[in-house]
Specification:
Blueprint lengths: L2 H10 L2 E4 L1 H15 L1 H4 L4 H8 L14 H17 L3 H10 L5 E3 L2
Antiparallel strand pairs: 1-2
Helix pairs in contact: 1-5, 5-6
Length: about 100
């Protein structure tokens, strides 16, 4: 399954992003696999500055717009696919239950 098929699934099902706990787990999966040594001692903001992996808009970021959240989630998906994690990304997203996702009305 391609990056485009996964992002189309997101768009067609009006998914914004995973709920905060699942989104944090998704982010950690990507970061741990791409930068395992740095992941341990680096916070999300520094990981973004150094590697460009946007952190999930949870906690204070949850107040941002739905469009902002979706944009970050799509960017994380693309980073995963572009760095050889496509199968992991696909499996994680398709394993989420409906109640674990945040949707547009």
């Amino acid at each position: 399954m391609s990056k485009e098929e996964v992002t189309n699934y997101i768009h067609e099902n009006r998914i914004i992003c995973p709920n905060p706990i699942q989104w944090q787990l998704f982010y950690k999966m990507i970061v741990r696999r791409l930068h395992p040594k740095e992941y341990v001692g680096m916070n999300a903001e520094n990981m973004f500055k150094k590697h460009g992996i946007p952190y999930p808009l949870v906690l204070g970021g949850w107040q941002r717009s739905s469009e902002d959240k979706k944009q970050v989630f799509i960017e994380q998906i693309e980073i995963g696919f572009d760095n050889g994690l496509g199968e992991n990304v696909k499996k994680y997203i398709y394993s989420l239950k409906k109640e674990q996702l945040f949707y547009f009305d």
